[in-house]
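Researcher: Next entry in the queue.
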Amino acid sequence: MDLEAFNYNLPKKLIAQYPLERGTEKLIVVDRAREKIYHRSFGDLVDYIRSEDCMVLNDSKVIPARLLGWKATGGKVEVLLVKRATKDRWWCLFKASKIPKEGAHIYFSNELSGIIEKRQKDLFLVSFSRPEMIFSVGLLPLPPYINRPPEKMDNKSYQTVYARHDGSVAAPTAGLHFSLSFLNILKDKGVELVWITLHIGPGTFRPVRVQRIEDHSMEREDFFVSKDAANAINNAIKQQRRIIAVGTTTTRVIEHLLKENGEIVEGPGSTGLFIYPGFKFKGVGGLLTNLHLPCSTLLMLTSAFGGQRVIMEAYREAVIRKYRFFSYGDVMFIF
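Model: Structure for this entry, 335 residues:
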């Protein structure tokens, strides 16, 4: 399938730079069976959720993964933590006018420094002098399309209200719309809420660089499913209750496990599952997701679930109606 099939014209002014109050966003609803598109508000989501539904959410927490430092020569360096290797060592991405070599020292403050131990393709293994200080020195890694430095309010706004487990370098943005009060409304309706964890890596922002999308490879991301979560999702499937995935991350975990094991299994794992049109979904029956970048793997997953033609039409309508796009933007529900 050609990459251009997932392209659309997006005026830059529609890329949300700041969040709205949780739960006040617009909601675009796609009925995939009837190929109908409706324009609502996020609070109206409760009208599309059934009392017996099982809603699965990602409770990963965004870490202050962006470190600003300097080399011994004085040159500036920007480091993005990607994955913890040991207590004091992280795999990192580097941005600098000249990438440091193995053995180079990087300084982040008077008390925190790092040494580059080795390089593996684009990643660098860095050992830190005082790893307990990393999060106090680091900054929140806002997405590259938010054209401003992080502000104090982002520390709260760029986390879900149920974020628990440190590890992501980007927020599971479909969950940003939920307030605690709205979660309670869903509980009172009888919806079963289930949490799993997938730590989002920088690959979520990397563009697809092949024209034939089938040639693209996803970067693997780590996840964890508790025993209770596995049992809850498996029971819902057996009882033919609908699984509502909050976000593409939860979708990938559920579909990865069902594809590999035929059921949801507890424990840690990782997935590089690439979902694009033609994929046969085994578990997810409803998807809540933000509005994604043109030609992105996230838009391809959304198109696989909702149908490429109707999803691209929904995006065209969202542009015309001036929806707010990407991480701090509005949201779509597909059922």
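Model: The chain has two domains: 3-62+153-334, 66-137.
Researcher: Noted, moving on.
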